[in-house]
Amino acid sequence: MRELRTLALERAVRWEPADDITSSLQKPLGTVSAIEPLVVHQRALTDIETHAAASRAFAFGVLYGEIYRCPRLRIDYVLVEGAQRGDIDDAPTDADLRSTMAALIDRLRASGVRAVGWYRTGTPGALHLSSEEVSMHAALFPEPWAVALVRDALALRSAAAFVRLANHTRPYAVPFFEQLAAEAYAEGERPRTAIAWSSYHTMTDVLALELADAPLPLFDAGKIRRAPAARPGITTRPQAARAKPFEPVRAVPVTPAPPPQVQPTPPEAVEPDPPEPAPYSIDRIFDPLPEANTPHVPEDSPRRRLSRQFSFRPRDRILALTIAAIAFAILAAWYFTH
């Protein structure tokens, strides 16, 4: 009877293998889907990442944990609770780790801890398992739920894969759950993850977990601070001279920069009113009449005092000439017809 332990999926991040992972680790068709899902505690991932950062060239070890039964989900799952590091001095020169791994497994079994897999870091190039590693995994871990972790030697955008064997011969990458620690999880906040592998992706919005023992990688563009360019008009503090060995550094007096002077604001120029146009200028053609309500009184002239019928105005004169011409034409026509 397996031990009962509830799988808290609300405190776990699901990682899926990326589509561009090497073809040698693709899941083959017909793989049994009833194999226990893989859950890796964040503490184990932190130990592996710290070991990989300390030994960039090559590192290996054994994964230990147990198979538990979740009473809420009613499934069995494999939980990787930690990693037992292997000593690089014990590794053989022919890169055959079978005897060394077997010794680590026996040591864990003697202390009452169950080995559920193994890991190796420092893989050059693409992720893969050699034929010797496949045979070693099949011999030391014949169970189908046993896993192997292969990781490259990169510090930034590293790639890794949890691998199982199909029919004890063909390795394939599997998804896994990262079980968060209690101190790394707060309800309502983004969870912090211990990995940043380019070969896995997740739909959860996560934050990177700062590893205390991992050295800072060289030329990390995300951690390089660029000095801002000096602006014109701002005096910079002079740099202190480099001190010689066993000679105290002399204090360099710092001259405070004078406060910026406030420039007086010039008064706004008042535009003069435009000049008044002349009385007979073209600009005054739309001006209203000066006295529109005053009645017009015609001036007395000698022509108006003579007679209205015999006015010498041009219009009356034309009318009189027209009447005279019509009368003359009528008389002429009567004379020639009679």
Structure description:
With 338 residues, the protein is an alpha/beta fold. It has a domain of 200 residues: Cytidine Deaminase, domain 2 (3-Layer(aba) Sandwich), CATH 3.40.140.10. It is built from five helices and twelve strands. It is elongated and about 160 Å long.
Helix content: 10-25%
Supply the number of helical segments.
Answer: 5
Radius of gyration: 51 Å
Could you state the oligomeric state of the chains shown?
A: single chain
Annotated CATH homologous superfamily of the domain at 9-208: Cytidine Deaminase, domain 2
CATH architecture descriptor text of the domain at 9-208: 3-Layer(aba) Sandwich
What series of H and E elements makes up the topology?
A: EEHEEHEHEEEEEEEHH
> How do the strands of the widest beta sheet line up side by side?
8-7-6-5-3-4-2-9-1-11
Helical/strand content category? alpha/beta
CATH class placement of the domain at 9-208 = Alpha Beta
Shape category: elongated
Q: How would you sum up the major sheet?
A: 10 strands, mixed
In the CATH scheme, what's the topology name of the domain at 9-208? Cytidine Deaminase, domain 2
Quote the beta fraction: 15-25%
How many β-strand runs? 12
Give the low-pLDDT segments: 214-236, 240-246, 303-307
Keywords:
about 350 residues; alpha/beta; Cytidine Deaminase, domain 2; ten-stranded mixed sheet; two-stranded parallel sheet; 5 helices; about 20% helix; elongated
